């Protein structure tokens, strides 16, 4: 597919290529939708096999950010930055400073931070060149690690799912199978264990799974066995693509609700889950806690406000489930419908004339 055809299909607005040979930087900034505000999205550093792969990843990820912000009640649009490079080999101070300069050229249209392959410390160098960054270390005025907030959002989301399926969100005695005991998974296991759930865990790093299990009284299974566990909730907290043709028939749960991004191998797997009467919490809704946290840095970080906004993931999921029921559509389709509705509502405001310092020009400058 050509790049413009892909942008047309996805509804993207802008794709910016950044090249600084002295820094060894090849980066792409994708801007999907700015109806709600400037594009906000992390910076992924990855050794893509080809230029095409990097471009399409930037397009796909920026589109996801529009949806995530829209339903998290965050007033930002969708963007993503990808750096084509090996995070284990190619990182340097000058690379991130160069990236910061490119981000700055867009004057705040793109605000970025950490994602796979980058960490908060990398952006300390980028901060020399631009203020349009989030997710900096706490010592530099950022909000620090977002995994606790993400885990909290997944926890309240699981309660909303149980309420939908059983009429009661209480976790006591409910069985939850958690795939991945990393930053988010381990904190989710802690919350689940504290509320009396029976937790089964797995991780490709067996020592990590054993440590989390020992600490919180969970049971450990082999990575591939996690799909076969009889349970109430399967919580993917590791990789994307784990809900696929091979795994859907194996699942023995009533709910799929976890932190991982892009859990469905393809959108049609939402329908496959529904056919098996498994409730799916759309990943970009339930895992939005981290985004809510970093976006809050742009207003002067306030942890209580972040936790309150993250708690609203529960009511948002209930609304999605209601729309899905009323319209006989999948929960993924319902979430997409609600994204479109929020964007359409915000877009209508642009038809109002809003006086600014330079009349209509001021209106545009304010991004109204
Ligand atoms: P992490 O790297 O700390 O943890 C991932 C864990 O999964 C690791 O322990 C890894 O060994 C394990 N793992 C990898 N492949 C596995 C497999 N096949 N089976 C079992 N375990 C496997 O990452 P994280 O920050 O905890 O994020 C987990 C997921 O949640 C990712 O998909 C991430 O994109 C998503 N997410 C994270 C945040 C956040 O705030 N950290 C926010 C939104 C979404």
UniProtKB/TrEMBL annotation:
Binding residue positions for NAD(+): 180-185
Superkingdom per UniProt: Bacteria
Keyword entries, A-Z: NAD, Nucleotide-binding, Oxidoreductase
Single biological process term from Gene Ontology: amino acid metabolic process
Coiled-coil regions listed: none
Glutamate/phenylalanine/leucine/valine/L-tryptophan dehydrogenase C-terminal domain span: 144-351
GO MF entries: L-leucine dehydrogenase activity; nucleotide binding; phenylalanine dehydrogenase activity
Catalytic EC class: oxidoreductase
Catalytic site positions: 80
Catalytic activity, EC: 1.4.1.20, 1.4.1.9
InterPro entries: Aminoacid_DH-like_N_sf (IPR046346), Glu/Leu/Phe/Val/Trp_DH (IPR006095), Glu/Leu/Phe/Val/Trp_DH_C (IPR006096), Glu/Leu/Phe/Val/Trp_DH_dimer (IPR006097), Glu/Leu/Phe/Val_DH_AS (IPR033524), Glu/Phe/Leu/Val/Trp_DH_bac/arc (IPR016211), NAD(P)-bd_dom_sf (IPR036291)
NAD found in the keyword field: yes
Similarity field: Belongs to the Glu/Leu/Phe/Val dehydrogenases family.
Identification of the protein by name: Leucine dehydrogenase
Organism: Thermaerobacter marianensis (strain ATCC 700841 / DSM 12885 / JCM 10246 / 7p75a)
């Amino acid at each position: 597919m050509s790049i413009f055809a892909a942008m047309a299909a996805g509804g993207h607005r802008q794709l910016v290529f950044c090249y600084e040979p002295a820094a060894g930087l090849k980066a792409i900034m994708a801007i999907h939708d700015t109806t709600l505000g400037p594009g906000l999205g992390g910076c992924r550093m990855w050794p893509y096999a080809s230029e095409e792969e990097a471009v399409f990843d930037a397009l796909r990820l920026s589109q996801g950010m529009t949806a995530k912000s829209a339903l998290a009640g965050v007033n930002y649009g969708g963007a993503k930055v990808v750096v084509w490079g090996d995070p284990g080999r190619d990182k340097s101070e000058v690379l991130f400073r160069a990236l910061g300069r490119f981000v700055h050229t867009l004057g705040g249209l793109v605000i970025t931070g950490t994602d796979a392959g980058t960490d908060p410390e990398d952006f300390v160098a980028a901060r020399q060149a631009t203020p349009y960054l989030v997710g900096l270390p706490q010592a530099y005025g950022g909000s620090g690690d977002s995994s606790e907030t993400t885990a909290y959002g997944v926890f309240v989301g699981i309660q909303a799912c149980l309420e939908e399926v059983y009429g009661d969100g209480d976790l006591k005695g409910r069985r939850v199978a958690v795939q991945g005991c990393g930053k988010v998974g381990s904190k989710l296991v802690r919350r689940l264990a504290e509320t009396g759930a029976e937790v089964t865990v797995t991780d490709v790093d067996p020592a990590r799974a054993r440590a989390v299990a020992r600490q919180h009284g969970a049971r450990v299974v082999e990575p591939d066995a996690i799909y076969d566990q009889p349970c109430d909730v399967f919580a993917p907290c590791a990789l994307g693509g784990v809900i696929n043709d091979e795994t859907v028939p194996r699942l023995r749960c009533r709910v799929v609700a976890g932190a991982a991004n892009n859990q469905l191998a393809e959108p049609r797997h939402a329908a496959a889950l529904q056919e098996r009467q498994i409730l799916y919490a759309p990943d970009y809704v339930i895992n939005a806690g981290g985004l809510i946290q970093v976006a809050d840095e742009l207003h002067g970080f306030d942890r209580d406000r972040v936790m309150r906004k993250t708690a609203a993931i529960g009511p948002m999921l209930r609304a999605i489930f209601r729309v899905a029921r009323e319209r006989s559509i999948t929960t993924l389709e319902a979430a997409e419908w609600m994204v479109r509705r929020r964007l359409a509502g915000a877009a209508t405001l642009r038809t109002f004339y809003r006086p600014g310092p330079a009349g209509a020009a001021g209106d545009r400058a304010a991004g109204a």
